[in-house]
Amino acid sequence: VVLLWRRRAVGETPQGPCTLFHAAYPERPTVWSLAWTPSQGLEVFAAGLANGALLLWDCRLPMAPVFSYFTQVHSPLWRMQWVDPVTLALQQVDGLVLDLRSKKLTRLRPCYLKRQAFDGVCTAICRLPGRFITAWADGSLHERLSGPRERRIRFARGLLLAVWHLVKAPQPLPNEVTPEPPGALPPG
């Protein structure tokens, strides 16, 4: 369920929500994330649910979602970001980009195996002009092109540009040393 309040004038506080958005799912998943479309004049928002479903609603037609998509993974959509009016970046267990026109889902870390899901959960997606930077729980950062529209460089769509792996330092730095808990025996 998503509730919408509208403020008509500065300083006016509405008494309650003006619109209720509800999706008919038998398991009643909670809404984990919302993202408003970047297009001027459109009153469309995306809702990411706890069961991995994505719903788009037009605020002018609140009776039912105008678009729905299931990511095939039963984990919450923690964060969403509009890339352009027809493309969404999704942060779930995996980092994904969804083209709403074709319903094509692109993984931001294609070499990543689904069975390793809890070793390397996508922890952040940063959208930069022309590329994505993704951070993963296993300590890696990935940089990928976001898919330029020009034909001449179409081959580069989704090209993995760089990967960095964070490794454990051999010795802790002085500011990283944790004190021993009270009553702990010294090593050795």
UniProtKB/TrEMBL annotation:
Taxonomic superkingdom: Eukaryota
Name under which the protein is recorded: Peroxin-7
Organism: Pyrodinium bahamense
